[in-house]
Fold these 2 entries.
Entry 1:
Amino acid sequence: MIVPMLKYNFLIYHRDFDQFLTHLQELGVVDIERSNRSVDDEEKALINQISRISEAVRVLETREVEKQETTLTLSANEIVDRLDALQKQREQFENAIKKSQKELAEVKPWGDFDIQLVQKLADKGIKIRFFVAPEKSFTDEWLSEYPIEAISSDGNLVYFVLIDNGNAALPTDAQEIRQPQFSAKVKEDEIAHYLGKIDELDKELDFLSTYTNTLKTAHSDLLNKLEFKVVSASAEKEAENTVMVLQGWVPENLNDKLVAFLNSENVIYLSEKAQIHDNVPILLKNNRFAKLFEPISRLFALPIYAELDLTPFFAPFFMLFFGFCLGDAGYGIIFILGATLYKFKAKPEFKPILSLIQFLGIATVLFGALTGTVFGVSLIDANIPALKNFKTYFFDQDKMFKLSLGIGLVQIIFGMCVKAGNLWIQNGWKHAISTISWIIFIVSSIVFYALSQNPENGVTFSHPIYLTIAGVSALGIFFFNSPGKNPFFNFGLGLWDSYNMATGLLGDTLSYIRLFALGLSSGILGSVFNSLAFGMAPDIPIVKQIVIVLILLIGHSINIFMSALGSLVHPMRLTFVEFYKNAGFAGGGREYTPFQRKILNS
């Protein structure tokens, strides 16, 4: 549900304005209406500082070192500046290492040699020349025929030197290359030197990581300062700039706290209940179960203040849809156990996500039990005596197909009920008549269709009761779709609405076939990996068992990942398109963000 809001207008004497804002920020319950304006230079500087500190915290928190107490006091700016300098130096050393490694790869085949000795020999007329030749061309005869010495081979080329005293013969199929300007040892020493420098920098980075709380405190202070400035600039100046006027919103349940504060301040205020046409911030308040699904609803949009929060309405359906799509009791058990065990060491803010995973796992176990599927094994086909009497209760593919359409139709009709309630609340009962008429017509048509399938009932669509219901529904559909307008205009809109309903309802219902298709594909993939595991394993003791386990682990891990991803995406699609459309969801609300001091998040 959406928490009711109260709108406040504050009138403050300009000399008391900053003090009032300081106290209001400490109270932290009012969402101030911000003015649309360009960002000034001071705000840009604050944003830049906040961004630099955020990046510094992100970098330093990745360093897994023990936090030690230190007596050296550094400011946030000093830490960030030093971090920037260290990162630049580290990047320079890393680039130097890459360059040295490339040069090392070029000279490594020549090993470690003394360049100065080569130069001294050249001064005395003995020149050392460097060659490469294909290994298939290089023969032992070359060693006796020419004054050469093989240095190394990489499997394709042979690296050798020729001692030339002025009249040495040259071997064929050999290519002379330029003399290396340094030996491999020189480059290896360079790389070791740069690695040592990086180790020194890492030690200093580890030292700076002990100041993450200092950075977080500075980050919070700067955010508070920026927030203060933005709110201050949002005030309107009246009475020759002597009175500052602010508008804000407070949840109804926090109103007493605000009133007590205002009565202690030298401030005049006016309050009233928020109206549906106001740009009211949205604060959701749901029960423990529905609250778990709020992150999913926020992926689409928050409702506006005039409409209902659909989170508690789609939550049970989403849970069932996920279980339908994944549809394997074994996978569901893994979800439940994994989330339960991880809860013991997870951070508090992450535990609601784990609770959501547990509920999704329960739904998966439910549908896995319904179809008799456990880790890709169909219990219907399995020869298990204990299950013999229960196999008739398992749903086959035909029943699952019909179930997917049935659940879809139920959600669509339920969405129309929500839409009717929403229209009634917002605009009055007359505006809900058309939608209610459609609900009655659709439900009665389904009921009479089901009854007509049994000839003994003697019920057909020509039954007087059905014709009466259809006639009354038609009046609401064709003459109350836009109350207060011309009847002929209403009738025309009713015809258009009927066309959209006839085509849209069919398309929307068929969209739910994806639940059946995804559940079927998940079971088939699991079965395929089981067949691969036992079919490809060699008939060798121990090796066979190892291969089976590896294929099962890898295969089912892939299937769980792919199927779980589809089981999230497609129910979201059904929720945000089919359900939201039939529920008349508009969306576009902004989140309630009270003006409050940011607290250090250690």
Note: The longest strand covers residues 5-13.
Entry 2:
Amino acid sequence: MSWTFKIFIGVFGFGLAVQSIYTAGFGVWDPVFHRPIILALGFTLAVFVFPLVKLYPTDQRAVRLLFLAIDAVLVAAVISAAYLYIDVGEELENGLFELDVKVYYVAFAAVLSLLELTRRIFGLPLFLIGSACLIYVLFGEYLPSIFHHAGYDVVTAMEDIWFTTTGVFGLPMAILLNLVFIFIIFGTILEGTGAGEVLLRVAFAATGRTRGGPAHAAIIASALFGTMSGSVIANVVGTGTMTIPIIKKRGFAATFAGAVEAAASTGGQIMPPVMGVAAFMMAEFTGVSYLYIIIAAAIPAIFYYASLFIAVSLEARRLGIEPTPVAERIKLNRKDYFYSLTFLAPISAIVTMLIMGRSPAMAGFAATITTVVAAFVLPEFRGDPMRLFRSLIKAGQSCSTILIAVGTLGIIIGAMDLTGLGVRFAQLVGDVAGNGLFLALLLTMAACLFLGMGMPTVPAYIIVVLVLGPAISKLGVPIVVIHMFVFYFGVLSAITPPVALAAYAAAPIAKSNPMFTGITAVRLAVIAFIIPFVFLYNPQLLIISEATGGNFEPAVFAWIVVRLSIALWLFTTALAAVDRFILAKWSRVLRFVLGIGLLLTNPTLQIMALIASITLLCGHHFAAKRKIAQTNSAGSL
């Protein structure tokens, strides 16, 4: 990449990051100016990061000049359309403005530019959905049946998609600029300071006595780092480069090592307090406090990581892997405890600010400032303070890419709002599912996993909520529960084949097959595919009043926790094919059946499954003790 591109990337990236920090700490600008200006800035930066000459290298000068000219046209279209949006200004609120027809075609060119850049950055899935929605607006009048609408021209389409606060510059864009950017910057700075290395050392020291050893360390480190970074791929690469080789060295298969890192890194988005950027979207869309959202997410996240921890222990037992030898274990000293402030202090800052009732944006601002201050305890950071500058540039780039995704999401929302596509699709889903909640949930799960393939969690989550959320809410499900359900499966798409982005990121590090790595990650994370159904039928698991109808019952909550805990053990041991010893096929099948029985809604079946499960597990425990006694007896002879 030429120095010209690097300079522009540095200037634009640094500027985007600094304005985001300022906005979080000192308040937002007037939205009429803020949103279009930042979109133009972010779009220009993204074009410099993903230029055609970089994506399609060529030695032909004429072709390179053509590529540069195309990129210049794209940037000019978005900047011009952003200026025209500002020019309309205050008149946007009442919709009373009249523009020359050419202006709408400039906006149309900007929309096409957004779609093109989306294709470059995120591939085909989000691009195809955005393009399909735009085509549907313009040509839906020629479609039959439920998909037919009255027909809209470019002028009408752009009035709704560009020159309103419901399309490109709508609520998702506002949430992104006001809340999400600061946490992206926080995570990137945290990574750049070297705090991740300290976190890994602490994780290795904490798990040295366990059979899983480095695999357990990967789970802990990925949970903590993932909840702060919010990026699955960054989490896999950031922690996996150190953990995966050591996991393999301890005797685990390469596929298993990559799958553990992929599953653990993916779970970082569902682990409070940050939970990736989608949690902020959820708080805004549901009208529920962000603090309540992270409280609701806590118990399911604990179950998810407990299942991963157990799965690793069982695999180690199956392979006969013993805990790390004492001589090889990492021992923490006073310096390590002091250095741990680099990641403990920012987390404490977030939690403290939220408990004090401050906004999530202010919590992110406090965490970012705390991260920078705490980083000075690290000699590596003090010796190279330019790390902060490089991190800010990288953060600006990350913000620009998610900005493009949310811009395309605005195109989709605008199209749905104009044509009523979301309502039509919800009606279709309702007709297919009838009054059956379970079938509607299966359709929602499939939509989340499909849309999430190769797409960031935020667009996948919002699209499914807009399209399928109304259909499920008609079946009597609280809105917070619906959003959490969709959010979970949007996150899990990162490890679900055939795309499985987290598995594809971990596989090269592990030197394993990406598809097999994804399949193994799904097996390890199977409880995460079950938990959303559990809390949807048992909202008490989410604790908060918005999910429980204002009637949280500790006894009911405890009953759910007991059943889910035993089911977790049954499912995990059945998939691992080992408990205290290798399981027979009949035992594995029976464990699956009993696990499902524990989670059914029928109280009688729950109790019967509980009794049968306890009987089975106790019988297995005593059989294992007899085997050990017989082995010891034979050994003494």
Note: Residues 3-168 form one domain.
